[in-house]
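Handout, page 2. Input:
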Amino acid sequence: WSAEKGEYLHFTWHTKRTWWYRRLVWVMIVVSFGLPVIWMVQTIIYTSGKELQANFEVLGGSFFSGFALVSSLAHLYDPRENIHHWDSPGFKAATFRRSLQSLWYGNNASFGLKLIDALWTAQNGDLTRLKRYVPAPGEAERLLEVLRQAQRAEADESARRHRLANTGDGRSRSQQLLEVGSQVENGPAETG
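Output:
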């Protein structure tokens, strides 16, 4: 896999939302909290004097690196980043140009936002941003069509889910249930 492939982006966008990924990160968070506790208990039980003091100094010196580890793991656990459901074969087969700096300092979610921005400006006639992300400038038009199709499919699927969630009168199922519950408590509404 290459970080410049659409298939790689698709995988990384969706991995944070899988149950196995979240469970693995959760285990790492629990272990990150558990190891210092076990260390302290063992230090108190099995050491004394200067050895006890030295262990607590080492533990204290590791606090900030432990805090950084837990903060990083919490960031990995958090799936709030917006993802795109661009499942099309055209997107997965696409090749992007990404600088080493963007790979090192950026993340795939922010690259997705840059693609959305480039798609938006390209749809309005300016291909310059989209050309930044293709290996050859002549591929921008092809990528524009691939991204349009992927975004259109995502929007259609979202609209379909929204229609399923709503009834014919535009009220969601939860709104209907609240109304029925209110009628049961207060009696049916007077008409007329």
